[in-house]
Amino acid sequence: MSTNVAELLSPAGDFERLRAAFRYGADAVYLAGHVFGMRSASPNFSFEEMCEASRLAHELGKKVYVTCNTLPRGDELSQLPGYLESCEAAGVDALIISDMGVLRMAKKYAPKTEIHISTQTGVVNAEAACMFHELGASRVVLAREMTLDEIREIRANTPKELEIEAFVHGAMCVSFSGRCLLSNYFTGRDGNRGECAQPCRWKYSLMEETRPGRYMPIEETGEGTFILNSRDLCMAEHIPELLEAGIYSLKIEGRAKADYYVASVTKAYRGALDAALEGRPLPEWVMPELDKISHRSYGTGFYFDRGGPGQDSERGGYVRDWEVAAVCMGMVDDTHVRLSQRNRFFSGEPLDVLCPQEEPFVVVLEDMKNSEGEAIEAAPHATMEVIAKVSHPIPAGAYLRRRRGEKNVLETV
Question: For the chain, what percentages of helix, strand and coil (3-state, to nearest 5) are there?
């Protein structure tokens, strides 16, 4: 069991995202190898990368947890002993497990590695939590369908050595604890094996059997409806309540997201968690920062209402008001910065800077030149190098963002 007061846990779909998580304030990351993880679309980690991830994390005083939370079929079990032994040999801090058979095998083949019970297991009461603790688990990741009152009850009726982890930000599944068969039914891609096609985000209409081709809207607008489309979870404004309820690890969803997403959300929740631990109000920049990433409309999930996270039935896409304009490659001198372009930006345009060391700030790029030293008014080409004068130093690796427009820009999934 950790001696820390609380933990900020970020997703890492590959090594670049792992570095972003640690650079922007995560205490730990969760990742997957190339098998048995619930996000097969992510690049994920080879054994060598897993070893390097553990080494880097431990040098920084941080931790690495590996997801082994699919439901393996019988013909896959022969792969598990070697895989579990490899995870332990790599030095990972914990295995995240949902299947009882995998739990049993982990105790045999990775006996020195902690066991965390996955949210896929659906732990919603103290008896289940206590049972898993008796079976060797050091942590339970609670089902997302729980209220704060229910979490308080679990904390009050479980051993203090058992850590409680819960999601605080990211996509919500329309089905209980991710136990959904829609993707498998519609596309043959099994959501319980890391291959979800997210059909809950699709737009649906109703068609009567004897009237083929005649579609009837499910709601009054006549535009169809995204009846299964859950809002994204966002609990940044409620960190004190989460801590008071007994949640130790605050988990950010998003192993399939890009490094910029990981950096931005981790930075925001690091600010929110530090403020809560120090008894300070939520920093004013935190909620605007979470609006600068690609997201669906936000809600507070089940924490305050057992009725659910709420569905955004009017749209199935993302809100994208902001975009990354450039990534900083470092300062050329005290007043000039070298940038790598990601989206078109212009000389004289104010850009918002995200970096680990300080709160987000705004710079205006002046005296812009390309890599040939020629003066330019805009940077239109992907990854082109730009040198510009700035009034504030920008560290290497920082992201420069620009607003895409006054109105929300919606793009379909």
Answer: 30, 25, 45
Q: Who contacts 329 (Cβ-Cβ below 8 Å, separation ≥6)?
A: 338, 339, 340, 385, 396
Residue-wise pLDDT tens digits, 20-59: 999 999 999 999 998 887 655 568 899 999 999 999 999 9
Closest by CA position to 190, among listed 120, 122, 257, 254: 120
Examine the pLDDT at 216 and tell me if it is beyond 70. Answer: no
What's the pLDDT tens digit per position in 186-211? 677 766 656 777 766 666 666 777 77
Confidence of residue 313 (pLDDT cuts 50, 70, 90): low
Between CA 331 and CA 199 the distance in angstroms is 45
DSSP H helix total and E strand total for the chain: 10, 23
Give me 355's structure tokens.
């970096």
At 330, give phi and psi (nearest 5°): 125, 165
In angstroms, rounded to a whole number, what is the distance separating the alpha carbons of residues 349 and 401?
Answer: 11
Long-range contacts for 113-116 (Cβ within 8 Å, ≥24 apart)? Answer: 113/87, 113/88, 114/138, 114/139, 115/139, 116/65, 116/140, 116/141, 116/165
Residue 87 tokens, joined? 């995870």
What CA–CA distance (Å, rounded) separates 2 from 160? 11
- The tens digit of pLDDT for each residue in 288-300 reads 999 999 998 899 9
pLDDT for the residue 266: 98
Which candidate, 87, 96, 99, places its Cα nearest to that of 118?
Answer: 96
Is beta strand 163-170 parallel, antiparallel or unpaired with respect to 249-252?
parallel
- Name the pairing type of β-strands 336-341 and 385-389: antiparallel
More confident residue, 104 or 1: 104
**Residue whose token pair is 């918002």:** 352
Residue 87 has pLDDT above 60, yes or no: yes
Cα angle for residues 23, 35, 72 (degrees, 5° grid): 130
Specify the amino acid at residue 373. G
Cβ–Cβ under 8 Å, residues 210 and 129: no
State in Å, rounded, how far the first CA of the chain is from the last one: 40
Residue type at 351? L
Name the 3-class secondary structure at 8.
Answer: strand
The 10s digit of each residue's pLDDT in 366-392 is: 999 999 999 999 999 999 999 999 999
